[in-house]
YjdJ family protein (Rossellomorea vietnamensis), 159 residues
Amino acid sequence: MSIKYWSQVGIGLLVLGFSTLVSWYEGSALLDHSWEWRYSAPFSEMVHESVTGQNDIVALDFFVYAAKFTPLYPGMMIISASYLFILIGFKLFKQSGFRIFLALLGAIYLTLCYVISSSPTAGGNTLFRLFQVVGVLMIVAACVIHVVPFLRLRRPYNQ
């Protein structure tokens, strides 16, 4: 594999790591807002049934809180993870497998878009739009990758 590929993977991982740490930090404000535990701590409620103190909060809930109220860095996490998925998928699959991979990934993103579509917060609406745009772009890219070889066959030769 080439240096171009590994440098792109490295930059993607750096952006993903940075945005993850900042999102985690921003989401840690959940510990100070006990009235928000009921609405922004779904993972803690799955683990502990009910959240009664700061010690009951699971670290994944920090990302939920950050996504709801400060969506910039969670959005960067989504974009950098998508970029890494595309890079890895491009290297793992051949042409036909890659377009199927892109279409499935786009469908997963559109499903996630549907899951958070009823969010009452501005951050949830922002992430809804982000999932929607990325999902549609992946499906369109899969369609374009599918059609391009057929366009090359139809092009007349100028001789």
